[in-house]
Amino acid sequence: MIKVRDLTKLYRVPKQNYKKNLKNWIWTPTEEKVGVEGINFEISDGEIVGFIGQNGAGKTTTIKMLSGILTPTSGIVEVNGYIPYQDRGKYTKEIGVLMGQKSILFYDIPVIESLKFYKDVYALSTKEFEERMQLLSDKLNLESLLKIPVRKLSLGQRMRCEFVASLLHNPKILFLDEPTLGLDIIAKQKILDFLTFLNTELNTTIFLTTHDLNDIDRLCKRIIILDKGRVCYDGNLDQIESRDKYKIIQVKHHEDFDISKIIPRNYAMSLSSNKFESLIKVPIDKLTTTINNLLNRNEIFDININYLSLEEIIRDMYEKPDKEEVSNG
Amino acid sequence: MVKYYSKLLYRFMIISWHKIKTFNFEFVMTLVHLIFNFSFVLIFWYTLLSHIQSFGDWSFPELALYTGITFVGESIGGIFFGFRDLPYTIVQGGLDKFLVRPINTLFAVLFERVSIIYFIEELIVSIVLIVTIVLRYDISINAMNVLYSLIILVWGVFIYNCLYGIVTFLAFWVGQIEVFRSLIFGLADSKQYPLSIFPEKIKLVLTYIIPVAFISYYPAVIFLNKDSLKLDFVLKFIVFSAIVLYLFKLTWNMGLTRYEANGG
Fold first, then answer.
1. Among A212, B14, B106, B137, which residue's Cβ finds the most Cβ atoms within 10 Å?
2. pTM for this prediction
């Protein structure tokens, strides 16, 4: 169980404007910058929660406070009864942390040596280690990589090894920061399937940040959206208000057909348009009218109706001038 | 706990060995570098002593032995080699991977980069040098003096490096600290020369402020039976050590709360 109450992290950053004098030149004045401010949420055992936000929204700061790396400026963070930054010794045995941008493997030596190192870090017996390796190796096709030095691995191969190193001790909670960053579609699929396996078969709680909203869509039932260090949405993916209110119509047309001329501007919105294809967003109650309207045009030769993608919903949320904190928790 | 960290130490040694074996040429060159280092210092003393009768009250065999002991201290201090790059690691957010694992972060950071094999190599070469000089110049030693000398050397190296660590931990507050650190610990170069040649005030600085004398001079004079330890001096050093250890723990713990885990 993860409990976060009024969690705030302030960073000290160099001031942008300050008086230029010798003292300030040596000791650059600093000011406080908000990493996250007053965030609240709870996560139950066995949930997969997607943590979404733009660059600098505070996703990584939050995950680093949850995993005990950062000490919060104020507020409460409690995971499985532990205060992460105070109870590192015991707490870290129960969690697994993987950061897509930071490797935990030793660069110049074969993968297996890094894994043996983490076996000893987690004080696993040889039997436990072999059993875990068997399971993880099967799931992530690792066998052929074990004797290769890390520096010789491709990004996808390395990420699979990073996963194994982070999961050797069978953690109850997994914190993942951009785990699919830079992976190709096959490697990404393997990782996502593996995460689903961990959650469904082993009841692992997964807390995931990613920029790839398709990952979230495929993996998570619940999302938390951060904006400028504050939670602006916390709830089920299906219950995002606009998801059931709009549809996306993909229109294939003849060259340079200007679709904006035929859609009613008071409710339909053109999202994108190129030579042969346009995307428009319409409220669900106007769908039939719009489709009928489009079918009458000879320039149009194909129409597809889609759900509003998560990416579009999130973009809308960020573009709204006055966001209110919503919680469907 | 001891078993746990012994296992990890063994694992770090294997990793260090694998790293060295990856680049065989580098491995051979570190040995050559080590032998060059020794030779240059010995040649320096030999040349100097061929122009003057003695250096302070030190003869060439004594100075050669002094050099050997200094190098033993340096090899033991190799354990703390990780302090060298620690400011960079802190600024780059490199502590993350150990902070989320059940391992002492400082232990892991110190041993992660250290080339343990190189320092074992240095230790072996230094001991061979000491034994050779003792036999070649027929220097009389006794077992108790050797033991005392070793205890002081190990403890001195430990305290000296704790002090070095305290200054290094300032990186949590100010970021890059290397120049300031080398400004202070530049004094450590004086460990190549016996403390007795310096004026009284400098001796005090090299004993109680930056305790360089404990990583070379005192172990050497006790080894050679040129001086003995006085009780008040030992007590003063114990108090000094206690203060250093307290400040070491304090700055590390306070530093961790300031850690900003940059990157990612």
1. B106
2. 0.81
